[in-house]
Amino acid sequence: MPVLTVPGMMKYRPAAKRREIRDSLAPGLHLVIQPKRTDDKREPARCSWAMRFRRAGGRTAKLTLGPVDFSEGENAEEPVLGAPLTLRAARQLANKVDRDRARGVDVVEEYKADKERKRASTSEAAENTFPKLATEFIRDHRVRRWGTWPRRWRETAALLGLRWDRSNTDPTKGEPEIIPGGQADKWHDKPVSTIDDHAVHTRIDEARKKGIPGLKKRNKGASDSRARKMHGALSAFFKWAKHQRKIATNPCLDVWRPEPRPARKRALTDAEINVFWTATEQIAEPFRSALRVLLLTGQRLREVAGMVDHELGSLLPGTPVDLWTLGPDRTKNHREHHVPLTQFVRDIINDLPRVEAPGGQNFSYVFSTTGSTPISGWSKMKKRLNKAMSKDVPHWTLHDLRRSCATGMQRLGVRPEVIERALNHVSGTFGGIVGTYQTDPLAAEVKIALERWSLHVAGLVEGGNNVVPLRAEAK
After folding, report:
1. Which of 60, 93, 124 is at the close of a domain?
2. Are residues 216 and 155 in contact, defined by beta-carbon separation less than 8 angstroms?
3. Mean pLDDT, residues 283-294
4. pTM value?
5. Which of 42, 43, 135, 193 is most buried per CB count within 10 Å?
6. Smallest Cα–Cα separation from 72: which of 85, 86, 83?
C-alpha cells in the first residue's frame, strides 16, 4: 500500500471511473478521486477523504470525512467531519474515528445523527429569523396582569420594524409590512440566536442619534427617550424569546439604557389657564372642546379622544345623565372608571357638532371628524395652540392639563384620595394593601370635587368668582 504525500496526490488525474487509493499510515483511510466530467486531460482531480471498515456484525461501511485540502497549512482547530481536510488532518481524524470504533461507538449512526442535528439547527435558524419571531411576539405578547395586548402595541411593532394596516385592530389577522430601514429590515435574514449585545447596543445608539424608521422624529438632536423606547421594545422581545426557548440568554441584559428624565411637575397657574382657555377659541372643533374637557375632567388624552356616545349616561337607559363610563379596555390600569360630568362639561359636549358614524358602525366618536375614528393630529394642533397663547407662558404639554386639574383640586382643599379616585390612580394613596382592601369609589366626593373645579375654571374664564366653599357644598 502506498504512503500518500501531498505532491503525489496533486499528480493524480481523474479517470473514466471513480478510484480509491488507500493510505497506509491511517487505518481505513482512502483518497477518493471522482471520475472525469470532460475530455480535457488537464481537468483537475476532484478528491475527498473516506474511511472503509467493518461495522459490528461484519457489515462493510463507508464514512465520508470531507473534501481534500491540498495545502499543507494547518490551523489550531481540531479536524471535524465535513470540513476540508489536509493530509495530516485526515489522518488525525481517521485515527480518532478508529479509536471511537474501538470504544464501541457506532460512528456511522453517530455521523447520521450529527448530520440530522445540523440540518435541524439550520432549519430552525431559518425559521427563527428576527422578522418572523417579531411578528409572532406582537401577536402573542400580552400584559401579564391584564391578559390583553399592550395599549400601544402598534408603537412596539414599529420599534421592531413592523407595521400593520391602520384599519386592522387585531395583529393576529393580516400580515405586517416590514418598515424600510427598521429593525426587521436590518435583521431580515438574521437568526435571533445570533444577535448579540453589541448588535443590540448599535441599534439602540442609532435610534438615539438618528431616529427610528416608521416613527416621527420629534426633535433634531439625539434623544434619550428614543433610546429608552428602543431598549424597552427589544428587551421585551428578547425576554419573550427566551421564555419561548428560542434563545439561551437575553442580549439586552447588559446593554446601556439611558436614565429617564425627572418626573414633570408643571401645572398651569390660574392666569395661564385663563390664557389657555382664550387661546382655544382660535382652535377649530372638535379640538377646542376636547382640550377643554381634558382640563375640566383631568382624564388622559387617549381616554378623552376616544370618547364614544355609548359611554355617556345621557344615552344609556337607567344611567345618570352626568356619568361617563370607561370600560376596562379604555383605561390605563384596566379598571372600569366612572367620571361624573359637571353641567359645564355636559354643555361643551352637547354643543359640539357631531359627525354620524358610517353605515355598519353602531357607535360614533364624540370628538371626531369622521365619526368612525377619534381625532388625530394633536402635535400640529398643539403648535397652533402655542402660537395662539402668549409667548410669556413657559413650555407645557397636553398631559400637564391633567396635572393642572389635580393640582387645582388640591388647592381647593380636595383630599388626596378623592383626587386619585377622580383621576383613576391605583398607586400613591391606594397603593399596596390600601388599594386591595379600600375599594370605595368615593363617587359622591369625586362628583363634588369635579364640580368645584369646574366652577373655579368657569370663574377664571368668565372673570368672576364662582368658587363655592367645599364644606358648604359637601353639606
Report:
1. 124
2. no
3. 96
4. 0.62
5. 135
6. 86
